Every structure is written in structure tokens, then in C-alpha cells.
């Protein structure tokens, strides 16, 4: 038994040594920074542990590099990047705690005989319609009013102190940036305000008003071009799900394709692909086409709203373009790591949200496993089908553990549903985008695009219904069972990487055996195509 454990320890040391050598040789420092960031966010807490680890481990790393003669300067940079990522996670956690501290103090005011009567602040995003046709408002609070027995207290901040969700009755859509006052607020599990008690204090600023006008005209053009498929088109192109049927939204979730309905990098890539396709017909210069596509991507993010997934995608596109301009192209993992660091710096409140975690884990799964699955499937399937199916399998490998730990559910049928729905979504979004842009000038185009979009929506509904009818894996609420399922998923993922390595190892052993049996083969070139031609 002792020899067994010593063998395990020796193999672990060997694996860590090989892994560190590969990271030191080819790993970008920003990947270590992103690793430290996500590890610190995963630990949670108040950030003190992460900051202490960064300081102590950083001091140890510097001392080790200075004392060890064989240590390279690159090792110091990599360890410093890991510590910087841990320190950044501590800053993010401290920021989130400060954001949550004020609402906690506000909630404790009820114990002292006070209750909140009014909120004042600026809308952070456009108002949204819930399943029960109520309005959901996300407010950046700048003033509060408390009411006691015989007195009234008003608290103001020079800048927004915290975010607060409010629910109200049906009413007109309010655009982001609008300053409002909500009076006669009723609290409980959530804050409710009547629609008549919401007052506009001031309109949004110029760019916010311009965005609202453009979004309104574009939504009207989409409705004209899409006909009965207008709600789905608005959800896919603008992120507006107000008019989308509740049962239809539930169908996406039951089929494991909820990510297709939420604005993400997939939608951004589809739109950029259409812009690139049109741009190549007009401009015919690749560099200008890339810049136009990137500019349109920024415009789309500004118009639809900067969600975590869209920000991740636009950061990756921008960094990739900068790398090409400087003749320093970056790897996909370096781009993803840079996007994580930028999102933590610019949007610290949303870096560890569920949508952000799903977005980064799905992208990491695509980078890690897409080519593996593609190599397995290409001998048996056509190239286009193999690539689409491998992308779906890679995405579910990246997000499986997140789904199991969060919801206790895994939907394997989402691989088939997402693969079948992807080309339908592509055609739907291209037609809806083109029709929505042209319908503002030529409304008659709706007679052509509306039947096509309605047909595509019918096909998409059939695909989702088929996916929803397939069985899903539901785990118990016990966390130990979910962790065991995650361990099993991790072993399966490790097997995906182990099989090609074992095949390569067996082929190498075969070549060594052939060389040992035929010494004359060693002197010959194994690649006769590169031998000099005999005259």
C-alpha cells in the first residue's frame, strides 16, 4: 500500500512538472492571471483570503526565482500574473460586498420602525416585461426616502449607491438612462410600485435618447418584416422578450437551448458574419471589412445592451483585431483570458453572474474539445455536420458541471437540439436583420420576408418540441450527489483527452519497434517526398 501511494505521489509530481514546463514555455501570462481571477472568485468570501494568498505566494515566488539558479525570468512573470489575478478577484469581491452593504442596511430599517416610501435613480437597462405582463425596473439608486410615525427622512448620494429591482404594473417602455422617482413603494419579498406612482424626473442623455430612438425604429422594422415571427426576431436581435409567449420561452429551456434565446457571442458572430459577407462584396479589402464588422459589433452591443456574454465576445474581437494590427496574433485562450480580466475591471458586478459563467465555460469548452470531437466525427459524418455536432458537444462539456451544480439538471438532448436549430437560427437572424433594416425604407419587403420567417419559426418550434420530449437527467438536491456527478463528468472529459494521447503513444511505440527490428530504416529518410531528386 505504501508503494502504491508513493507511486501516485511520484506520478503527480511528474505531471505537475510537465504541466509547468509547458505553461512556462508556451503559456501567456494573461492566462495565469485569468486562472487566479476565477480561482479567487470560486473561493468567494470577502476577498481577504485571496489578497493574503496573492501577497504571501507572490513573496514566495519572487524568493524562489531569485534563489533558484535554474529558474527563468519567464517563470517569475507567470507567477506574478497568477498573484495579480488573485488580487483582482479580491478587489471584485470587495466591490460586490460594498454594493450589497447598503441594501442590507436599508432592509434593517424596518426593524427600527421605518419603511421605504420612495426610490430615486437612473434606469440601468431598459424596462422589461415579466411573464405576468408586469414591468421589471433595474434602478441605480441615488436617493431614498424613509417614513416613520411622525417624520420623514431623505438620504442622497452624489453617485449611484446600489442597484435595486422594482416591479410595477403594465405601462410604457422606459429606456435606460431615464431618471425616475418611484413613490408609495410597498416592500416584502420584492418592492412593488404602481404604474401611476412612477414619475420621470429628467429624460435620458443624448446618446441614451438616440439609442432609444434607433432601437424603437429598428424594432418597428423587425415587426414589419417578420409578421407573426416578430417577437422571436426582436428577442434574437434586440434582446426584447416582452411580447414572446411564455410557453415558447419554456420550450427553449426544456430542450436545453435557452442560450439560443439569450443574446450571446453566438448571436454576435452570426451578425458579424452577415456584415462580413456583405462587406466583401462591396469593399473587397479584408482589413477594412474586419474593421467594419468590428464597428457594427460595437454598435449592436450598444443598441442591445452590454450583457456579460456580449461584452466577452466584443472584448475578444477587439483584442484579436489589435493583435493582428500589431502583427502579434494571440491564441484563443489568451483572448478569452484578456476578456475575463477586462470584464472584471469594467463590470465587476457581473463577472461572476450565472450568464457570465455560462458564457466563459461554454467558450472554454469550445476551445478545448471542439477539435477533439471533430476528429472523432469527421470519418463518419460530412464535414459541416461533424463541425456543428462537435461544437454542441464541446459546449455541453464546458457547461455540464455548471448546470449540475446550479440546477441539478443535465439535458444531453440539447446536443441534438442545438445542432439542428443552429442553421435555422442562422437563416432566421440573417433574414430578420436584413428585412428589419430595409423595412424602414421599403415596407413592402415584409410580404417577402414574413412568410419565410414564419416558416423558419415553425421549423424551430418543431425542433425544440422534439428536444423537449427527450429525457433529461435530474439529480437530487443533495450537494454530495451533484459533486459526485461533477467528478464523473471530469473523468469523462479527461478520457476525451487521454484517448488521442494513448493512440499517439501506441503509434510511437510501434515505430520504435520497427526501427529496432530494421536498423537499416534509421539511415533512410522517413519522408521520401523531401529527399533530393536523383538526376
UniProtKB/TrEMBL annotation:
Compartments where found: Cell membrane
Principal location class: membrane
Keyword Membrane attached: yes
Residue ranges the record marks as coiled coil: none
ComEC/Rec2-related protein domain: residues covered: 236-504
Keywords: Cell membrane, Membrane, Transmembrane, Transmembrane helix
Family matches, as Pfam families: Competence
Residues annotated as transmembrane: 51-70, 296-320, 357-377, 389-411, 423-445, 452-473, 479-502
GO cellular component: plasma membrane
Name of this chain's protein: ComEC/Rec2-related protein domain-containing protein
The organism of origin for this protein: uncultured spirochete
Amino acid at each position: 500500500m505504501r508503494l502504491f501511494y508513493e507511486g501516485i505521489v511520484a506520478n503527480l509530481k511528474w505531471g505537475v512538472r510537465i504541466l509547468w514546463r509547458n505553461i512556462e514555455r508556451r503559456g501567456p501570462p494573461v492566462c495565469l492571471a485569468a486562472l487566479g481571477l476565477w480561482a479567487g472568485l470560486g473561493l468567494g468570501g470577502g476577498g481577504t483570503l485571496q489578497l493574503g494568498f496573492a501577497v504571501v505566494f507572490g513573496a514566495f515566488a519572487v524568493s524562489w526565482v531569485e534563489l533558484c539558479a535554474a529558474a527563468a525570468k519567464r517563470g517569475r512573470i507567470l507567477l506574478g500574473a497568477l498573484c495579480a489575478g488573485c488580487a483582482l478577484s479580491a478587489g471584485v469581491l470587495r466591490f460586490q460586498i460594498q454594493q450589497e452593504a447598503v441594501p442590507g442596511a436599508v432592509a434593517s430599517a424596518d426593524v427600527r420602525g421605518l419603511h421605504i416610501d420612495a426610490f430615486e435613480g437612473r434606469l440601468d437597462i431598459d424596462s422589461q416585461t415579466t411573464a405576468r405582463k408586469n414591468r421589471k425596473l433595474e434602478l441605480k439608486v441615488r436617493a431614498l426616502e424613509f417614513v416613520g410615525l411622525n417624520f420623514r427622512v431623505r438620504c442622497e448620494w452624489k453617485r449611484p449607491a446600489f442597484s435595486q429591482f422594482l416591479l410595477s404594473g403594465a405601462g410604457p417602455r422606459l429606456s435606460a438612462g431615464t431618471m425616475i422617482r418611484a413613490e408609495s413603494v410597498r416592500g416584502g419579498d420584492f418592492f412593488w410600485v404602481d404604474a401611476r406612482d412612477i414619475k420621470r424626473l429628467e429624460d435620458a442623455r443624448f446618446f441614451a435618447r438616440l439609442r432609444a430612438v434607433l432601437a424603437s425604429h429598428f424594432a418597428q422594422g423587425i415587426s414589419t418584416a417578420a409578421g407573426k415571427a416578430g417577437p422571436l426576431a426582436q428577442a434574437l436581435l434586440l434582446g426584447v422578450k416582452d411580447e414572446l409567449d411564455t410557453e415558447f420561452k419554456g420550450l427553449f429551456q426544456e430542450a436545453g437551448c435557452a442560450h439560443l434565446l439569450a443574446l450571446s457571442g453566438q448571436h454576435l458572430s452570426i451578425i458579424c458574419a452577415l456584415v462580413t459577407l456583405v462587406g466583401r462584396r462591396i469593399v473587397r479589402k479584408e482589413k477594412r471589412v474586419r474593421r467594419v464588422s468590428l464597428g457594427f459589433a460595437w454598435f449592436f452591443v450598444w443598441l442591445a445592451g452590454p450583457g456579460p456574454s456580449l461584452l466577452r465576445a466584443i472584448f475578444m474581437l477587439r483584442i484579436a483585431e489589435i493583435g493582428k494590427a500589431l502583427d502579434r496574433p494571440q491564441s484563443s485562450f489568451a483572448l478569452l483570458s484578456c476578456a475575463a480580466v477586462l470584464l472584471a475591471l469594467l463590470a465587476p458586478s457581473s463577472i461572476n453572474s450565472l450568464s457570465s459563467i455560462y458564457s466563459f465555460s461554454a467558450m472554454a469548452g469550445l476551445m478545448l474539445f471542439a477539435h477533439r470531437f471533430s476528429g472523432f466525427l469527421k470519418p463518419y459524418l460530412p464535414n459541416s455536420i461533424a463541425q456543428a455536432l462537435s461544437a454542441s458537444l464541446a459546449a455541453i462539456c464546458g457547461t455540464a458541471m455548471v448546470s449540475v451544480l446550479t440546477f441539478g439538471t443535465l439535458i444531453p438532448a440539447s446536443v441534438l437540439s442545438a445542432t439542428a436549430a443552429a442553421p435555422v437560427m442562422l437563416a432566421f437572424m440573417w433574414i430578420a436583420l436584413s428585412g428589419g433594416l430595409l423595412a424602414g425604407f421599403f415596407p413592402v419587403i415584409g410580404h417577402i420576408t414574413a412568410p419565410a420567417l414564419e416558416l423558419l419559426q415553425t421549423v424551430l418550434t418543431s425542433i425544440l418540441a422534439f428536444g423537449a420530449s427527450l429525457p433529461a437527467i435530474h439529480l437530487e438536491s443533495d450537494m454530495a450527489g451533484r459533486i459526485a456527478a461533477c467528478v464523473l463528468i471530469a473523468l469523462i472529459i479527461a478520457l476525451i483527452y487521454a484517448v488521442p494521447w494513448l493512440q499517439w503513444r501506441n503509434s510511437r511505440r510501434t515505430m520504435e519497434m520497427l526501427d529496432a527490428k530494421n536498423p537499416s530504416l534509421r539511415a533512410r529518410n522517413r519522408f521520401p517526398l523531401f529527399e533530393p531528386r536523383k538526376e
